[in-house]
Amino acid sequence: MLWPYRFVLQALESGSIIRIGVTLALRILGGLTVLAGIYSVIELLKAAFNLPTADTITGIVVAALIGLAFFSAFQVLFYRAASVSELGSSSFTVMEIASILLRTIGEVYAISAGVLGVAGCISAWFAGGRGVNLGGTFIPALPIPMENLFLFGLAILVFLNLIGFGVLILFYFLAETVVVMADIAINIRSLVKAIGAPGS
């Protein structure tokens, strides 16, 4: 009666079920990202067309940038889904998948921060900061007064891009650390087998 579960357990052990599940989840998330991007762009455009001309033009540019960010995130998710799908059988499948997911998080965050930085800069320069709300926890304490919109916009651009780049490096480091841990585990296993082999 237990024989059907044997194949399930073997598939889990080889990582095939986990790979399929993560691949599907990333692709679904990519599709939802596109839908969220379309919704966000429409809402931004609706708001922009109710503003004065200069603000409307800025709003259109910002909407285009936001749409680009969502589309870029969609491409990253589908690319990383393919990377997970192409993984071979391994004793450390979950660690390899975790490495890819960490890279994915860093890449999506870096894209989002970079685009928001550009959008915030354009908004500050051409619409007095009314095109994009970047307050709160995202930029908690920029030492630039809102009265100096040129420096404020430049500060948003530099700050968010530096944050995005820093997060990207951090998650790439974590991803490589996971891979190194898997390599160490594989080498230790091979060493133990070699030491324990007869005639060694």
Major sheet description: none
Q: Span between N and C termini?
A: 43 Å
Q: Helicity range of the residues?
A: over 70%
User: Which class best fits the helix and strand makeup?
Assistant: mainly alpha
Low-confidence stretches: 131-144
Number of domains: 1
Strand coverage percent: under 5%
Give me the strand/helix succession.
HHHHH
Q: What is the arithmetic mean of pLDDT? A: 80
Described by the principal axes of the CA atoms, the overall outline is: elongated
In DSSP terms (H or I, runs of 4 or more residues), the helix count works out at 5
Rg, Cα atoms, Å: 23 Å
Please tally the β strands and state the result: 0
Features of the shown structure:
200 residues; mainly alpha; 5 helices; 0% strand; elongated
Can you put this structure into words, describing what you see?
This protein has helices spanning 3-14, 16-48, 53-85, 93-127, 149-196. Mean pLDDT is 80; it is low at 131-144. The protein is an all-alpha fold and 200 residues long. Helix 2 runs antiparallel to helix 3 (53-85).
Briefly, what is this?
The chain is mainly α. The chain contains 5 helices and no strands.
Give the topology.
Blueprint: H1 3-14, H2 16-48, H3 53-85, H4 93-127, H5 149-196
Helix pairs in contact: 2-3, 3-4, 4-5
